[in-house]
Amino acid sequence: MVQFPRWQQLLVLAVVVLGLVFVSPNFLARETAEGLPGWVPSQQINLGLDLQGGSYLLLEIDLDEVAREQLDNLIESLRIDLRRAKIGYTNLGVDGQAVAFQVRDQANLQQARDILRNSADQLLIESAEGGVLKASFTPQAMRDRQAGIVQQSIEIVRRRIDETGTREPSIQQQGDQRILVQLPGVRDPERIKSLLGKTAKLTFRFVDETAPIDGSRVPAGSELLSSDELDPLGNPRRYVIKKRIMVGGDSLTDAAATFQDGQPVVSFTFDGVGAKRFADATRQNVGRAFAIVLDDTVISAPVIREPILGGRGIISGSFTSQEVQDLALLLRAGALPAPLTILEERTVGPGLGADSIAAGKIASILGMIFVVVFMGTIYGLFGLMANVALILNLVLIMAALSGLQATLTLPGIAGIVLTIGMAVDANVLIFERIREEIREGRGPVTAIDAGYRRAMTTIIDSNLTTLIAALLLFQFGTGPVKGFAVTLAIGLITSMFTAIMLTRLLVVTWLRRRKPQALAI
Amino acid sequence: MALIRHVPVAPNFKFMRRRNLFIAISAALVLASVALFAVRGLNLGVDFRGGIMIEIETRDAANLGDLRARLGSLGLGEVTLQEFGNPTDVLINVQRQDGAEKEQIAAIDRIKAELGDQVAEYRRTEFVGPKVGDELKQAGFLATIFAMLGITVYIWFRFEWQFAVAALIALFHDVITTIGLMALIQLEFNLSTLAAVLTVAGYSINDTVVIFDRVRETLRKYKKMPLLDLLSLSINGTLVRTTLTSLTTLMALLALAVFGGEVIRGFSIALIWGVLIGTFSSWGLAVPILSYMNLRAGLVGGTDDEGEKTKAVEKA
């Protein structure tokens, strides 16, 4: 152990120098660091949301709702096709994961089957007794569709957040149907939460004028929806609206908040196809009422006074100007393919983040001072060498955090402070071994050699067991706790290096220069 | 000036004479912890119970009574308020609302609307829905079990099975008594205090391994020394190191508990206790358990000759 080949000595020095190089950008202003030439390490430590302030939102996509909707759509198209083919049927509805109906006249069974087959791709069709047909989507079709929906949802979430002007948001898929959104520096998470909580599915549909106005009977193919307006009794006004969509929100090319007669409204523009469909529909139905429906709520139900041909229109309702801004934003960004639920929120204000950084700094520095003074007092010169290792250990931890771009969280800082306390353990083990060797009558060189050698297995065993705990914390922890696991693990590895290799370099160099007759410990 | 010169390399305490007392103390601590856990329960944080936690900074020194009355009028069920570090800092815990995630979000909106005029800054807003709360509980439980198993398997690889059994028992002791302390002082049990529990497991095993290493070495060295003496000798041989490392770790943790801020105080307190209990359990529980096992079966390595020689030095 006292034999310390030159290449090993150089390796130790190289690691220390690399550590210093990687840690140095942290002492520059962010702009200066970013302006450094490409070959110089310029990464600074990534602060977690709990330190820089910001919002962490975990969203879940309601895929069940999508499956339900998909079956509902199948039913609607079957209803129309069967009626067109004049095939009598009963009991058309959802049965578990499938759509089922009964053909009245067995003679039509094959024809009904063909209609069913053509109504959607990748259907599994079964027939049962009594002319019952059942259709469900293949598992592959479900999976593909769900994957598509997740991707599309992430895209829409990204667009909505970008529209709010949040800088550097992180939006990632987590698991099968979740989206993790991290928004550094966000001060008003409530607005973003409310933006993400809306599906923003806009449809233009006709009011079903064949149904009684009080909604006491809702014909098949229509549904009863409530609106934001109040009737004279103070209850939300309700409308019977056809399920068939005249034009959907996906045909919008632009939407903007504006004013009309002093009222905040949203103006919108259709794309070519949407404009034509809207023009045709309004031309053929002058005098009838249509409804603008957003997420199953009727915003307004105006009567068509004249055909609307220009592909432009206005949505008015009882809006505040903030609501109009948000609605325009949602329409521009597009509708979510499925509703999102916020499962978890963690928001830290900028004040607490700054306080946490300051407190973490003080605790680290004081912890460091306590340990350094203690080690110096107890072990004298050897203690000083352990202290050099301790300080460089801190440098290496910070360098590793910068280089790996790991995220430093508040528990992460706690991990560093804990490492400061535990890092000297390896040195204490070595020094105590050296003391034992001296007591057994060995000279300085042999004692040091044996001390390092014998302490080694113990150091590795004890550090590896703690490393196991750290890795499991990383595996099972979330957010800040993961940050703790990261710094703990990095700290264990760097402290093994500094406590063993670096102090050894110092001790061996000292031994060669001074050639002491006795060791002062 | 090195003070260590005045400290004996290996003190000569007869640890094993009191081994049954130490085991009894450990057993009493575990029983007390289980009783506390059963009677008082844990003060579950928002991570595990689900619900809402909001930390606010008020414009003027907070009037808790007034805030309590105002929040109470919202009908959100159990709402607890506590001053958090500063007179202007208040921590609000709201129970999990009936219903799904939507109801929790609505409750946050109502709280913020009610308190708007008094609040200078929302320092923290945390909401954990029922689904995630259950998942976190499960993940936390699994992490604890897997950490203990992983550590035990490692010890089993590196040592004989008797050591692994003793280490596992000591590990359970440390984890249970740390949870017992949390029940006693009603320290909030959340993700970070759970991390503290796992770290305690890691630290405590670290300490145990150092002593076990020495036991194994001494076993090879002194083939004929009575087991109890041998175990006492091993503890004494590592006692200075155990004490010094515990002290430096405690110093760092003390700095963290006092100056690290309110958010991680609970975490630091759990760790401080864990370091104390983990250090005790290494020599006070793990080694006494070893004393009841047949450690000399199947040991290899070392010669009697070498053993006797070192023994001679020991006597000198």
Q: How is this structure best described in words?
A:
Chain A contains 13 helices and 19 strands. Chain A is of the alpha+beta class and 521 residues long. Chain A folds into 3 domains: 6-51 and 349-514, Up-down Bundle (Multidrug efflux transporter AcrB transmembrane fold); 63-138, Hypothetical Protein, Haloacid Dehalogenase-like Hydrolase, Chain: A, domain 2 (2-Layer Sandwich), CATH 3.30.1240; 197-346, Gyrase A, domain 2. In chain A, the strands form 5 sheets. Chain A has a 6-stranded mixed β-sheet. The longest helix of chain B is centred in the C-terminal third of the chain and has 33 residues, at 227-259. Chain B is built from 10 helices and 6 strands, in the order αβαβαββαβααβαααα. In chain B, the strands form 2 sheets. Chain B has a 4-stranded antiparallel β-sheet. The chains are: A alpha+beta (521), B alpha+beta (316). Chains A and B meet through α7, β18, α10, α11 and α12 of A and α4, β5, α5, α7 and α8 of B.
Protein traits:
heterodimer; A: 521 residues; alpha+beta; Multidrug efflux transporter AcrB transmembrane fold; Hypothetical Protein, Haloacid Dehalogenase-like Hydrolase, Chain: A, domain 2; Gyrase A, domain 2; 3 domains; six-stranded mixed beta sheet; four-stranded antiparallel beta sheet; 21% strand; B: 316 residues; Alpha-Beta Plaits; 2 domains; two-stranded parallel ribbon; 65% helix; elongated; disordered C terminus
